Predict the structure.
Amino acid sequence: MNAAASLPSSLLEQLQTIVGEQRVKTDEDSLKSWGVDWTKHFEPRPSAIVFPGSTEEVQAIVKLANQFNIAITPSGGRTGLSAGAVAANGEIVISLDRMNKVLSFLHADRLVRIQAGVVTEQLQQYAEQQGLYYPVDFAAAGSSQMGGNIGTNAGGIKVIHYGMTREWVLGLTVVTGKGDILHLNKGMIKNATGYALHQLFIGSEGTLGIVTEAEIKLTRQPQDLKVLVLSVPDFAAVMPILHAFQQRIDLTAFEFFNHVALEKVLAHGHAVRPFDTESPLYVLLEFEGRFEAVVDDAMQIFEHCMEQGWILDGVMSQSQAQAEALWHLREGISETIAPFTPYKNDISVLITHVPAFIADIDAVVAANYPDFEVCWFGHIGDGNLHLNILKPADLTKDEFFEKCKVVNQFVFETVQKYNGSISAEHGVGMTKKDYLTYTRDPIEIEYMRELKKVFDPNGIMNPGKIFDLS
């Protein structure tokens, strides 16, 4: 039976009045498409998909949902990896697809005001047209929306130099769970007038309200980016390489991936092996080579690392096309392992703890997944590791996930041992909710629950995500 049948007809009629009859979808295809993100753990069961075109329309929908006590799930590009945008319990999905405009640009402030449905790549291209740069970047940039990035405090491949999404948000317009419209911080860098409420909404995964607009700061464009891909004998060599380069060069990226990840990308047919030498691990680093002295420094550091046995082989890009090809070895991983239904862990610790942390996690994985392919990659330069267990062909999805969940406890106990995070950049959603106490103290979680009650007293905003109310 159609899920919309459970909604009062008067509610559907009022939704259609707010946004237009054609902008309320209740057919099964729409419910399945807009009620889910990239996770495969939960089946989507929304009641309706609504496409507002303005902050005021979002406000009207939220007030209506409060009146009927119907839950809401915000939906952006649906590229999330923690089921934060999955509507599994009859929620109304508010899609920000129509709210995709760049509203204004203040050149002197390097500040752009956008609607939340603007796609990340769209913002990057707009910044480039202004001679500027938006640096938060990741594989899903072509489809992820800025509202979702803000909701999860997205990170990506440039965090080592530019930081997370939080660093670039100078203001937000939000509709709270009460249905109030708040204009927070209004783009200011200096504003010492009490609580920075816009920061509460960054990383809140739509549990406090819906971000409808944002003021985003931009920066200068990097110039003459050089990319190095290095063959590395083991995890123990990765941190010395990082330290050696950082002592003399400002890196814009420092990524790693293992042999399994590289082979999957190469097998996909859209990449070329960077060199003949094979090894268990590979490092990709990037820096601005604007000056010949910087490039010379990089080569000297490379030679030093070779002498120390930390690097077995390597290649440096000689053109933008080659740089893009080398980046594809790293950025193509998520797409190429997707058919293997990977069980993902997105974990992080302080950089200081990375070597010992990896050794402990590697031991857990080797002991418990001896017959599974394990795909390691991530932003190791900022302490963020992506651990992906690939599903064997002879196991069903449910059987495979059940086996993987058994080991979650050991993985997250290791995260807790090093005071790390169970979710570095993907959010908590539903997939990590049961493990939140490994990163957050129970008293801290209780404060978060109380904050949610302030902004969302009826508990209608994306319920069941991050934590349960009781």
